[in-house]
Write a structure and sequence with these properties.
With about 400 residues, the protein is an alpha+beta fold. It contains 14 helices and 12 strands. α5 (about 90-100) packs parallel to α7. The longest helix is centred in the first third of the chain and has 32 residues, at about 10-40. It is globular.
Length: about 400
């Protein structure tokens, strides 16, 4: 590795960056070839979940990376060559792939063979791909437009310092109309002397339209906040937790807790009286009280790295009901539907340990252990319990390579 003194001038530093970039692109191509090989040997659901754990990324990102690997190693060979040569990086390759995802493989092959990959940045590459696809398959444009509209999606992407990004991909006319309405609301408020910036006004207008017309954009939807009682009473200033997001400031927790428009579930550290600990084997389906207790205890999907709120998951029997497992706090754990279905996939093992931690073993032989559930009040003052303590290869399995 170079130190600051080894760069005699800007030119030598730039050459170093260029060389490192080419090497990084080659490594990315090598990884994608490996992911494609994995995809050829296992089910898609299983492979995507293992890629998510190996590369420490979300399931959605792992799905996109697996799809990119499939495409580059099958019908986009020129793009793969450009990646291996360092002409484009993995992000640019993904942008080009996304632009061809709605065309047939034969059209995508033609685009790949005719495309100049040195056109500039990833946005320019995507425009070039779209232009070529339009010229090569003009009759398919309407079909592609309808397919793209059918694939519309709304995603919640959590950020830092109590903020998140709401991402929507939808037909251009509707997106333009939504923006125009929010802009119109913002301009009207600005003309009335509102001191907020236009960006703030547009965001607040969107929130108000989505949340029942409340001018301050406060939510009426059901939310789960974990906060200790002294903090709620302003006797302490411990961080709270918003399920599915992570830690939030004590002031924000109090705002949510005492907002008259919120349907707020009061989860104060841990259940105090009447907590359901065991209902034996009277029923396969857990009673509502047990569900609420498990949701409060676990907070999120038990799969390491998954932050889907527990109230949107399935309650899975660690020891199957048919094998004598009880419907109780000790045997139940929340798993989102995707990870619940992994139990039926070959090579996957999800074990709840005696201390409440969950250990996952993948078909590749790697193990991942999640943090224990929240059982003591002090845990609520130390932050989110969702921690992946690391992956351990099984005997004879090499440690994982760099993943991005």
């Amino acid at each position: 590795m170079f130190s600051d003194g080894e760069f005699l001038n800007c030119s030598s530093a730039a050459r170093f960056v260029a060389e490192r970039r080419v090497n990084w692109c080659r490594e990315s191509a090598f990884e994608l070839r490996g992911i494609a090989q994995m995809a050829s040997l296992g089910s898609r659901r299983s492979v995507v979940s293992e890629v998510a754990l190996l590369c420490r990324m979300s399931e959605a990102a792992a799905e996109r990376r697996t799809a990119l690997a499939d495409a580059l190693t099958s019908y986009l060979p020129c793009a793969l060559e450009a990646l291996e040569a360092g002409v484009i990086d993995e992000y640019a390759a993904s942008r080009g792939f996304e632009a061809t995802s709605c065309v047939s493989e034969s059209v995508a092959r033609q685009v790949d063979s005719r495309l100049r990959f040195d056109v500039g940045n990833p946005a320019a590459l995507r425009r070039a791909v779209n232009s070529l696809a339009m010229r090569l398959d003009p009759d398919g444009y309407e079909r592609r437009r309808q397919k793209k509209a059918a694939a519309r999606v709304l995603e919640l992407r959590h950020g830092d310092h109590g903020s998140s990004t709401l991402f929507a991909e939808l037909p251009a006319d509707r997106a333009q109309a939504i923006y125009a309405l929010c802009d119109q609301d913002a301009r009207r408020l600005k003309q009335q002397g509102d001191n907020r910036t236009m960006d703030q006004l547009r965001v607040d207008a969107l929130a108000a339209r989505c949340l029942g017309g409340q001018p301050d954009g406060r939510p009426r939807a059901q939310i789960f906040v974990h906060v200790d009682l002294p903090t709620l009473l302003r006797l302490r200033e411990n961080p709270a937790e918003l399920t599915g997001y992570g830690e939030i400031s004590p002031e924000l927790a109090r705002e949510i807790a005492f907002d008259r428009n919120s349907t707020w579930n009061r989860i104060v550290t841990a259940p105090i009286t009447g907590k359901p600990m065991d209902v034996g084997r009277k029923s396969y389906r857990p009673p509502r009280a047990v569900r609420r207790y498990i949701h409060a205890l676990r907070r999120t999907c038990a799969m390491p790295g998954c932050n889907r709120p527990a109230q949107y998951t399935d309650l899975d029997h660690a020891t199957a009901w048919a094998d004598g497992g009880g419907t109780d706090e000790a045997n139940l754990r929340p798993l989102c539907r995707r990870h619940h279905l992994l139990r039926a996939e070959a090579g996957w093992d999800i074990t709840t340990n005696d201390d409440g931690t969950v250990t996952v073993t993948t078909p590749g032989g790697f193990t991942y252990t999640d943090g224990p559930p929240n059982t003591a009040p002090e845990r609520f003052t130390r932050g989110c319990n969702k921690r992946v303590y690391g992956s351990t290869p099984a005997p004879g399995i090499a440690s994982s390579s760099r993943c991005v």
